[in-house]
Amino acid sequence: MSMITTPAAQAETRPAAPARPASFHGVWVPLVTPFNEDGPDLPALRRLTRHYRQCGVDGLVVCGSTGEAAAMDEYEQLVTLDAVLAEAGGLPVVMGLAGNHQRDVLRRQAVFTSRPLAGLLTPAPYYVRPGQAGLADYFRALADASAVPLILYDIPYRTGAQIETDTLLALAGHENIRAIKDCGGCIDKTQAVIAHGGLQVLAGEDLQMLAILAMGGSGLIAASAHVRADLYVAMFQAMQAQQVALARQIYHALAPLMRLMFAEPNPGPLKGLLARQGWMSEQLRAPMAPASLALIAQLEAAFADLERRYPMA
C-alpha cells in the first residue's frame, strides 16, 4: 500500500520573525541529539533536519527530553540549536527551556530567544515541586519576559509537579502562552483544556495522539515520528480532511513501533533504530544506556513490517 507524498506545510509568519508561526499545529518532531566522542554530531543533526523538512512536518523541537538536553551544557544546546536553524529552511523551530533555578532559566531564555525561534517548550520546574500558585507565577514570569510564545510542557512523571486544570485555564489568558504539550495522562484535563479553547493542545504521549486529534487537539509533538514522519503527516492530514478511517488505518499501522520505542527509556530505542538505519551513532549521554539488542531486533522487525504495508514513496 503506497502513500501519496505531500509537500511540506508552509507556516504562517510574522514580519519580525519569519520562523514564528501564528499557531502551533500539525506534526512536530522533537529531535534526538546525535553525539560523537567530541559532543553533538552536527553533520548528522543537519541530515536529520533536512530529512524531516522534506517529509513535510510542520515544525521541529530542539533540546527537549528526547534531545537529552538535561545532559548537555548551555554551549552544546546553543550549537545544536544553531545547526538545526541553519538547515530548517524556514520551518518553525521551538527550543526546550527547562530548569529549577528561575533566575538562571530567565537568563537562558534571553540567550535562546536571540535566535529566530517559533517558541519555547517549557515544563514545570523539576524536583522542587511547587504548588499551583508557584507554578502560575513561574510560567507568567517566563511569558512576560519572553520574546517568543511559550508552549507549556505538562509532564508530571518527569518534573514531579502536576499542573492542574484550573491553573492551565488561568494561564491560557496570558497572550504569550499559546499551547500545551500534553503528557499529563489525564483525559479529563485534556478534554477541559481543548473545550476551553484558550490553548492549542499538542499530543505528547504518542499512543494518545489519535484520540487527542479526534477531540480537537491541534497536533502532536511525537518522538516516534522520527521514523516514517511522512506517515504521521498523512495521518494528521487525513484527520484534518475528516478522513477518519484512513487516519485510523495509518495510526494502527504505526502503533506497534510507537509501543516498542518506549519499551525502554527514551531515546535509547529510537537512537538504536536510527543508528541501524544509518542516520547517526547510537551514543547516548550517561546515565542513559543503549537499548537492549532484543528490543532493537523487535524494532527492526516492526519497521520492516511497516515498510511492507506502506513502502516509501
Give an account of the 3D structure.
The protein is α/β, with parallel strands linked by helices and 313 residues long. The protein has a domain at 26-227: Alpha-Beta Barrel (TIM Barrel). It has helices at 42-54, 74-87, 102-112, 132-145, 156-159, 165-171, 187-196, 209-215, 229-240, 244-261, 268-276, 293-309; strands at residues 26-30, 35-36, 39-40, 59-62, 93-96, 119-123, 150-154, 177-182, 200-203, 219-221. The strands form 2 sheets. An 8-stranded parallel beta barrel has the order 1-4-5-6-7-8-9-10, surrounded by 6 helices. It has a two-stranded antiparallel sheet with strand order 2-3. Helix 3 links the parallel strand 5 and strand 6. The longest helix is centred in the last third of the chain and has 18 residues, at 244-261. The relative contact order is 0.14. Mean pLDDT is 93; it is low at 1-20.
So what's the overall shape?
globular
| Total count of helical runs of at least 4 residues | 12
CATH fold category name of the domain at 26-227? TIM Barrel
CATH class of the domain at 26-227 equals Alpha Beta
Instruction: Please give the oligomerization state of what you see.
Output: single chain
Order of helices and strands: EEEHEHEHEHEHHEHEHEHHHH
Instruction: Characterize the largest beta sheet: strand count, sense, and whether it forms a barrel.
Output: 8 strands, parallel, barrel
Mean pLDDT: 93
With strands numbered from the N-terminus, the spatial order across the biggest sheet is 1-4-5-6-7-8-9-10
Assign the CATH superfamily of the domain at 26-227. Answer: Aldolase class I
Distance between the termini: 10 Å
Approximate strand percentage: 5-15%
Could you give the count of β-strands? Answer: 10
- Secondary structure class reads alpha/beta
Unreliable sequence segments: 1-20
CATH architecture of the domain at 26-227: Alpha-Beta Barrel
Pfam families: DHDPS
InterPro entries: Aldolase_TIM, DapA, DapA-like, Schiff_base-form_aldolases_AS, Schiff_base-form_aldolases_CS
EC number: 4.3.3.7
Active site: 153 (proton donor/acceptor), 181 (schiff-base intermediate with substrate)
